[in-house]
Design brief:
This is Ribosomal protein L11 methyltransferase. By secondary structure, the chain is of the alpha/beta class. It contains eight helices and 15 strands. Strands 8, 9, 10, 11, 12, 13, 14 and 15 form an eight-stranded mixed β-sheet that branches. The termini are far apart.
C-alpha cells in the first residue's frame, strides 16, 4: 500500500481554507507548515508572554496525505472551485508503506555532544556508559540535540556549568538544556516556555532522566536572577526579550543565546552588548551561538 503526499503553496489568508477543504475532499490528514522554515525568513507565530494568540505564517505549505490512486488533478480542480481560488502551485510525492516505527527510529542514533555528554534515544544503548547520558526521544517539543542550535548550547553548558550554579532555560522546548544543566551539577534549574506541550514534554523528560527541575508557563513565571541564562529561540524573540533575559542574569553571570542565523549575528549581539560583555561567537553550519558575561552595575 502507498499514499500520495500533496503539497500546496498557500498564503496566510487561504492556508486554513485550503487545509479544511482538502479534508472535505478526502485527505487523510492535512497540516500547515512555514514555507520559510530554517531560513532567514523563518517567521515566529507563537509570540511571547502578553502577546496576542498565535496566528499563521505569511507564506505556507499545506501538506495533505491521500490514499494511493487518488486523482490529484481532480482534487485540485475541486479545491479551486469550492474554495474559489485561482491557480495553485503544488507538488506530489508517493509515500510507500513501511514499518514507520523502525523507519523513524533509524533516523535517530545517539548524538555525541562531547566525549562526556551524549543524547541517547530509549531504543539505543549509550556508546559511552561512563559519560553523562541524556535519555531523550524525538517528540513534539523542539530540542533533541540534533539541531545545531541545541548542539551549540549543550556544548557550551558542559564548559560553563559548575556545581552549585543556578540555571534558567528560557524557551525550554523538550527540557534538554535544563536536564543537561542539572546532570552537569547545577543546584537549581528552571525552565520556561510559552507552549504548554513543551512544559509537559520537559516534565516528562526530566522524570525519565531522574533529575529535579522546575518548569513554568512563561506567562505565569516570576522572574529572578540566575548564575546562567540560556535561550535557544528565534532571533526575533531574543531581540524583544533582551531586557527581560538581562534582568534574569546576575551581575557576573553568563548568558548563551542561540537560534540565530549568521546574517542575524551582528544585530543580536549589538542589542545584548548593552548589558553583557560579549564573547567571540561560535558557529555551526548556518547557526550562531552568542555568549556573554553580565556587566556589574556602576
Amino acid at each position: 500500500m502507498a499514499w500520495v503526499s500533496l503539497k500546496i503553496e498557500a498564503q496566510d489568508n487561504n492556508a486554513d481554507l485550503i487545509s479544511d477543504t482538502l479534508m472535505e475532499l478526502g485527505a487523510l490528514s492535512a497540516i500547515i507548515e512555514d514555507a520559510n522554515a530554517e531560513t532567514i525568513d523563518e517567521q515566529p507565530i507563537f509570540g511571547e508572554p502578553g502577546d496576542p494568540p498565535p496566528g499563521i505564517w505569511q507564506q505556507n505549505l499545506v501538506s495533505a496525505l491521500f490514499d494511493e490512486g487518488v486523482d490529484i488533478p481532480a482534487v485540485i480542480e475541486a479545491l479551486t472551485q469550492q474554495a474559489k481560488l485561482g491557480n495553485l502551485n503544488y507538488t506530489t510525492e508517493t509515500i510507500q508503506e513501511q514499518d514507520w516505527v523502525r523507519a523513524t527510529q533509524s533516523q535517530f542514533d545517539p548524538i555525541r555532544i562531547t566525549d562526556t555528554l551524549w543524547i541517547v534515544p530509549t531504543w539505543h544503548e549509550s556508546p559511552n556508559p561512563d559519560a553523562i547520558n541524556i535519555v531523550l526521544d524525538p517528540g513534539l517539543a523542539f530540542g533533541t540535540g540534533s539541531h545545531p542550535t541545541t548542539h551549540l548550547c549543550l556544548a557550551w553548558l558542559t564548559q560553563t556549568v559548575t556545581p552549585g550554579n543556578s540555571v534558567l532555560d528560557y524557551g525550554c522546548g523538550s527540557g534538554i538544556l535544563a536536564i543537561a544543566a542539572k546532570k552537569l551539577g547545577a543546584a537549581e534549574v528552571v525552565g520556561t516556555d510559552i507552549d504548554t506541550q513543551a512544559i509537559q514534554s520537559s516534565l516528562y523528560n526530566a522524570e525519565q532522566n531522574q533529575v529535579e527541575a522546575e518548569f513554568y508557563d512563561a506567562n505565569a513565571y516570576q522572574s529572578k536572577e540566575f548564575d546562567i541564562v540560556v535561550a535557544n529561540i528565534l532571533s526575533s524573540a531574543l531581540s524583544v526579550l533582551a531586557p527581560a533575559l538581562a534582568k534574569s542574569c546576575k551581575a557576573g553571570g553568563k548568558i548563551a543565546l542561540s537560534g540565530i542565523l549568521r546574517e542575524q549575528e551582528a544585530a543580536v549581539s549589538a542589542i545584548y552588548a548593552e548589558w553583557f560583555d560579549m564573547s567571540a561567537p561560535q558557529h555551526m553550519d548556518a547557526w550562531v551561538l552568542l555568549t556573554g558575561t553580565k556587566k556589574c552595575a556602576t
